[in-house]
């Protein structure tokens, strides 16, 4: 089979009631684009009968492929599986709960054609709980933008469009699906966002709670480290080690000043313990930095990966 132009990836987790209206809404929108397409629905271990409904639709829709997990692995894993199975030049991701509007896919593709590599949806008029979802999301989005330098209003919106090359080498874990634009930006992809329609949930209930805040913060720390220091971990561990050794030296000098200048016994102050702890922490930091440098070099060489990404090569004229 020839590769389609467009691949639509949608994760499914206990969305039995929304699947029929979702496909009824999605198919006319894709057919109106007049481009070859495929749909990959990833059943993320649903327990409500979603699998049977997906298989019924797959029997009637030749463009639909169903990928089923043995258990629930999470939305990030579902999107990664869909991306791994995608054959299209352009990959669009969206939720199957009908809160994302398939009619916006055309606008995403049009923006891609303006020279962008990633187009993210922005739920400007979001139809969710004002405090528990909207306020928390706005705070998280601003934090992510400040830390990563990729400024988007809505990282959590699943509705996004990617050129295939912008996702080359991307491997996602945990809850990191919202950070895909950051991964793309790291390899030089042009990233933008456009407002998209957001509908109130009609079926089922949200799969996310306030505990997501802590996951986002931890994942943000990982993404920030990988984006800035993955190829140079010594800057982090070595910097911490040098700071600890400096603190140890200052405490040691102050301890001598107290002893020789004022006759204060060393054991009457916490300085000896502080000197010992910061010295050991400094040495450990330097050793961890060296070990991390060895691991990074082993990773690049064993995977035959480069520490750079080439956009194009212009050969000399004959």
Describe this protein's structure.
By secondary structure, this protein is of the alpha/beta class. Helix content is about 45%, strand content about 10%. The protein has helices spanning about 15-30, 50-60, 75-85, 105-110, 130-150, 180-185, 210-230, 235-260, 270-300; strands spanning about 5-10, 35-45, 65-70, 90-95, 120, 160-165, 190-195. A 7-stranded mixed beta sheet has the order 3-2-1-4-6-5-7, with helices on both faces. Strand 2, helix 2 (about 50-60) and strand 3 (about 65-70) form a beta-alpha-beta unit. Helix 1 (about 15-30) runs parallel beside helix 2. The mean pLDDT is about 85.
Keywords:
318 residues, Spore Coat Polysaccharide Biosynthesis Protein SpsA, Chain A, 2 domains, 7 strands
Enumerate the strands of the largest sheet in spatial order, edge to edge or round the barrel: 3-2-1-4-6-5-7
Specify the helix fraction band.
40-55%
Task: List the total number of helices.
Answer: 9
Compute the number of structural domains.
2
The CATH class of the largest domain, by name, is Alpha Beta
Q: Which word captures the global form? A: elongated
CATH homologous superfamily caption of the largest domain: Spore Coat Polysaccharide Biosynthesis Protein SpsA, Chain A
Largest sheet: 7 strands, mixed
Class of secondary structure makeup: alpha/beta
């Amino acid at each position: 089979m020839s590769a389609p132009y467009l691949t639509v990836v949608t994760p499914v987790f206990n969305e039995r009631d929304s699947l029929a209206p979702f496909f009824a809404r999605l198919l006319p929108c894709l057919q109106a684009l007049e481009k070859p397409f495929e749909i990959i629905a990833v059943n993320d271990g649903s327990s409500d009968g979603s699998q049977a409904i997906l298989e019924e639709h797959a029997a009637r829709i030749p463009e639909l492929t169903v990928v089923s997990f043995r258990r629930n692995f999470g939305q990030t894993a579902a999107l990664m599986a869909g991306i791994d199975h995608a054959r299209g030049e352009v990959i669009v991701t969206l939720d199957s709960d009908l809160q994302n509007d398939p009619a916006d896919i055309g606008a995403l593709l049009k923006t891609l054609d303006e020279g962008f590599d990633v187009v993210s949806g922005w739920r400007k008029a979001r139809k969710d709980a004002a405090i528990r979802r909207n306020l928390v999301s706005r705070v998280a989005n601003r934090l992510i933008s400040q830390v990563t330098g990729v400024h988007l209003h809505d990282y959590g919106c699943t509705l996004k469009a990617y050129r295939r090359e912008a996702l080359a080498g991307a491997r996602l874990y945990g809850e990191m699906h919202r950070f895909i634009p950051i991964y793309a930006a790291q390899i030089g992809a042009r990233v933008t966002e456009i407002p998209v329609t957001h509908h109130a949930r009609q079926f089922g209930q949200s799969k996310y709670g306030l505990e997501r805040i802590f996951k986002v913060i931890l994942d943000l720390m990982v993404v920030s480290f990988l984006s800035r220091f993955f190829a140079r971990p010594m800057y982090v561990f070595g910097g911490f080690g040098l700071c600890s050794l400096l603190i140890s030296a200052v405490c040691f000098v102050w301890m001598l000043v107290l002893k020789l200048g004022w006759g204060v016994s060393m054991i009457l102050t916490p300085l000896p313990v502080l000197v010992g702890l910061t010295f050991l922490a400094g040495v450990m930091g330097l050793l961890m930095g060296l070990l991390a440098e060895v691991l990074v070099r082993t990773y690049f060489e064993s995977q035959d990966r480069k520490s750079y990404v080439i956009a194009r090569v212009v050969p000399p004229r004959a």
